[in-house]
Amino acid sequence: MTTLAPLYPSLFKNDPEILLLLYCALHRGAQSMQANIQTLLSGAIDWERLLHLAEEHRVTPLLWWNLQRLDPTLVPEAHRTSLETCFKRNCLRNLRLTQELVQLVQHFETNGIRVIPFKGPLLAFCIYDDLALRYMGDLDLLVRPEDAERAEKLLKAQGFYQWRNVPWESHFAHRERQLDIDLHVSLIPQHLASGLDEDFFWQGLATVSLAGKTISAPSPEQWLMILCLNGTKDSWPTLNRICDLTEFIAAHPTLDWPHVLNTFEGFGLRRVLGISLWLAHSLLNAPLPKTVLMPLMADKAVQTLVAEKIDYLFQAEKPDEISEVSRSVFNIRSRERVRDKLACFLGLVSHSGWFKLTENDTSVIRLPKSLHWLYYLLRPLRILSKYSNLLNPLRATAPKL
Q1: How far apart are the C-alpha atoms of 59 and 97, rounded to whole Å?
Q2: What global pTM score does this model have?
Q3: Are 23 and 59 spatial neighbours (Cβ–Cβ below 8 Å)?
Q4: pLDDT per residue over 9-27, tens digit each?
Q5: Fewer beta carbons within 10 angstroms: which end of the chain, N or C?
Q6: φ/ψ (deg, to 5) at 53
């Protein structure tokens, strides 16, 4: 397999903490990075910064797993203790979440509700082959829209309370069990899914044995779609999302890439795939054939958006979380079809309350009361004009890769 050279050695050659983090953010490809890790550890490392970066990007388990396999004594004692404690705590939490997941799936199925777990323990098991290597915050479950009401009642009967509800998912929590559940009727918001057929995730499912229970799991092609769409939906905020995708690629060396490309292109998601794969290859040397990457890289927007994401990921000063507007703008720019861009934009307008008129809308042009309804048509055009530079991936500035 002919592959392209990764970008991270040249991008971060003067930043040993980021390089060490990237070298240690691998599972299947970790062996090939040991010499690089040892070389960096022989020099000066700002351990406080390294541990902060690992926590920020939710890859502390992978960092410690790689360091302790090489030589744990290379890590200063205080930081070694901290990393080991975090690793063990994460492992215990993940085992508990796995047990909770298996019980929930069994409970749903007993009551005639088909459910697909995604992310969380199932992702760790299917892609990493090790529950301890991935940080997990909650459980994500996908149910059919027609089963959502019954599923919600079952959760409430178990002591869960609903603290947030949006059209595509409901958020539940359980105080005593300290457990959060996202109950999805759609993998991502419909205005971001574009032309994706939701039945895609219910056809051709695989099965896996998790903690002694056989449960439905996404097929490899479905996993790839989930990883790419979830990363894009949230604008690839942290390195752990890219780790998941890289581990998936490494775990599936015989993936039928021509079929994958046709599937994504059919849904208008070719650019989403290009951005996702190029991020995984650029930062973590995901083993992708040159014949797959080069056609995707022919899209200049992919190059621009990936450069922006890499620059954002390791900014010294950045907001705690990406705003809804920024996420939505990134999704708009990540779509190649005009109709999908428009669907993303209208969804942003709707969910952000942008149809609510402001003084700026009514002051742009004075209309008689009988024509005030026109302001609701003019407002989206005014907002679109305001963000037109951001919506065009080739106009926005970005570091050159």
Answers
A1: 18
A2: 0.87
A3: no
A4: 677 888 999 999 999 999 9
A5: N
A6: -60, -40
b/e 102-133 (16+ beta carbons within 10 angstroms → b): bebbeebeeeebebbbbbbbbbbbbbbeebbb
Q: Are 182 and 140 in contact (CB under 8 A)?
A: yes
Residue 8 neighbours by CB under 8 Å, 6+ apart: 19, 22, 282, 283, 284, 285
Contact 325, 347 (CB under 8 A): no
Q: Which H/E stretch holds residue 304?
A: helix 300-313
Give residue-wise pLDDT tens across range 196-229.
777 899 999 999 998 888 999 999 999 999 999 9
Q: pLDDT tens-digit profile of 257-280?
A: 999 999 999 999 999 999 999 999
Residue 169: strand pairing partners: 166, 184
Beta-carbon count within 10 A of 134 CB: 25
Output helix, strand, coil percentages for the chain, rounded to the nearest 5: 60, 10, 30
- Type of residue numbered 378: L
Could you give the dihedral angle defined by the CA atoms of residues 93, 94, 95 and 100, in that order, rounded to the nearest 10 degrees? 90
Structure tokens at 213: 């229970």
CB 68 within 8 A of CB 84: yes
